[in-house]
Design brief:
Blueprint (H helix, E strand, L loop, with lengths): L2 H10 L3 E3 L12 E3 L1 H20 L4 E2 L5 E3 H7 L1 H4 L1 E6 L6 E3 H9 L9 H10 L16 E4 L2 E5 L5 E5 L4 H14 L6 E10 L14 E11 L17 E5 L7 E4 H6 L6 H16 L7 E5 L11 E9 L2 E12 L1 H10 L5 E3 L2 E3 L2 E8 H12 E6 L2 E6 L10 E5 L6 H14 L4 E3 L5 H10 L4 E5 L1 H6 L1 E6 L5 E5 L3 H9 L6
Parallel strand pairs: 3-10, 12-14, 22-23, 22-24
Antiparallel strand pairs: 1-2, 4-9, 5-6, 5-7, 8-9, 10-11, 11-19, 12-13, 14-15, 15-16, 16-19, 17-18, 20-21, 24-25, 25-26
Helix pairs in contact: 2-11, 3-10, 5-6
The structure holds zinc ion.
Length: 495
């Protein structure tokens, strides 16, 4: 859906809105999630936890957001985590050099290109300042995106807000591995906030300075990159791969991708399949997805192989997850800086584990899910807006509405509401306004079902169950509601 429609809905229904908005000094690139937005965002993370962490036998940690300088010396962030920026000579506004050129030539420009190369591209393509249209720029400079802090009363302990959630996973590896029953692979996950001093935050949740990440780091033995016990489950599953240098995206089965070395091994293919399956569960059609293989200029400084998982929206292709084969870069770096041994000893072999990383943006996924779920339909003179969210990530599974407040209907509705809460369903109660308005209110935030308690309920103990997408209704016995809702939520049954 168009960007303005999302933003209007977001503000109207408290999905997300600017942080510190009552102050004129509010900072760009910081956003709040309102009650409805937070409910969807929480469920999205829960689904990630279920599908990519728990079902895959991984563990989850919650690490500190502030880490000492040494961590980022070892990780390479202090020297390498830079954006190329360029200043307009006329109006002095700052821009990302790579983005300016990319917009002008409508192609991808790697941010890792040398500054001199970016300088010449700006000249060659006659790039102009987005603010004043000027064509004279200073030389491109590298700008470090880390947000620094001084810790302690004397402020002599230099620290940084983490620019990614994965570093604490690497730091905790030795402890976690010791308590892990069995050998590698060991998958460790974390969901939380990260911070980057973006020069030009924009497109609301797509480029923020404080943002949510859900990351998985899988530690493994590189000699066993083709040993995956559960590979059978995915061997025929087709990945939408766009390898570096290929003409376009093609469905390639996991076994073919591993055999033809499109990916480094079965291990990589297996997790890419799990990733694609997870996003399918968010309601994203496979034809709108692709894994784009990055070339050497585009890859992050630590990656041997990178697949960016991207989804097509009205704003173009948006990256939702970076799948990075980081080799032993991280553990070797931290071992050197900390002077600690981070190797493992398995089967008489001592080695530093390799890492495959699945690094996803929470808020980006949230935005893309909204974009794809948005529906606007004309019905006669009326306009109907609804979000076709999958039941698992909807803010509530159903609304409970008494038709009127009198004659015992309100009490009966409360009884059903309480009962459904006992079963741990997320339900919302609403007794205000006409029934049509109540339906419209929950349609707009993507609640898939509504239960109405009417005069027949008092006679035969049945309720009306309404489906958001089709607006069809059917009578259901109250004692059968919980089981039916469970089946609908887990998509074991269609309405
Ligand atoms: Zn300018």
């Amino acid at each position: 859906m168009p960007k303005d429609e999302i933003n209007n809905l977001a503000l109207r229904r408290e999905l997300f809105f600017p942080s510190a908005e009552i102050y004129s000094s509010a900072l760009a690139g910081f956003w709040e999630f309102g009650p409805v937005g937070q409910a969807v965002r929480r469920r999205l993370v829960d689904l990630w936890r279920k599908e990519l962490v728990e079902k895959e036998g991984m563990v989850e940690i919650d690490g500190a957001q502030i880490l000492p300088e040494d961590v980022f010396k070892a990780s390479g962030h202090l020297s390498n985590f830079n954006d190329p920026i360029v200043q307009c000579k006329k109006c002095h506004s700052l821009s990302r050099a790579d983005k300016l050129i990319a917009e002008k030539i409508d192609d991808i420009v790697p941010e890792s290109l040398a500054t001199a190369e970016l300088d010449s591209m700006i000249k060659k393509h006659k790039v102009s300042c987005p603010k004043c249209g000027g064509k004279n720029f200073d030389k491109v400079k590298k700008f470090n995106m880390m947000m620094g802090l001084d810790i302690g009363a004397t402020g002599d302990q230099k620290a940084y807000l983490r620019p990614e959630t994965c570093q604490s996973i690497f730091l905790d590896f030795r402890r976690l591995y010791k308590n892990h029953r069995g050998d590698l692979p060991l998958g460790v996950a974390q969901a939380g906030k990260s911070f980057r001093n973006e020069i030009a935050p924009r497109n609301t949740l797509l480029r923020q300075r404080e943002f949510g990440q859900m990351e998985v780091e899988i530690f493994f033995d590189q000699d066993k990159i083709d040993e995956v016990p559960l590979f059978e489950e995915v061997k025929d599953y087709k990945l939408n791969l766009w390898p570096d240098g290929a003409k376009g995206t093609k469905g390639i089965s996991c076994s073919e991708a591993a055999k033809k070395k499109t990916v480094s091994g079965k291990f990589i293919a297996y997790y890419l399949a799990r990733v694609q399956q997870f996003y399918e569960k968010l309601g994203i059609p496979v034809k709108k997805m692709r894994f784009r293989g990055l070339d050497k200029d585009e890859k992050a400084f630590y990656a041997r192989e990178t697949w960016d998982f991207e989804v097509e929206t009205d704003l173009g292709w948006i990256e939702l997850m970076a799948c990075n084969y980081r080799t032993d870069y991280d553990l070797a770096g931290h071992a050197k800086q900390s002077k600690q041994d981070l190797s493992v000893n398995e089967g008489g072999k001592k080695f530093v584990p390799h890492i495959f990383e699945l690094s996803a943006g929470i808020d980006r996924a949230f935005y893309v899910v909204l974009d794809l779920a948005f529906r606007k339909e004309k019905r006669g003179k009326e306009e109907r807006i609804y979000l076709m969210l999958p039941p698992k990530i909807a803010p509530f599974l159903c609304g409970v509405f008494p038709l009127v407040k009198k004659d015992g209907l309100l009490e009966k509705a409360r009884e059903i509401f309480n009962e459904l809460n006992e079963y741990s369903f997320d339900v919302v109660f609403d007794e205000k306004g006409s029934i049509g308005k109540r339906y419209a209110r929950i349609d707009e935030i993507g609640v898939p079902y509504a239960i109405t308690i009417d005069y027949d309920t008092m006679k035969d103990n049945t309720v009306t169950l309404r489906d958001r997408d089709s607006m069809e209704q059917k009578r259901v016995k109250v004692e059968e509601l919980a089981e039916l809702l469970w089946k609908l939520q887990s998509e074991k049954e269609k309405f």
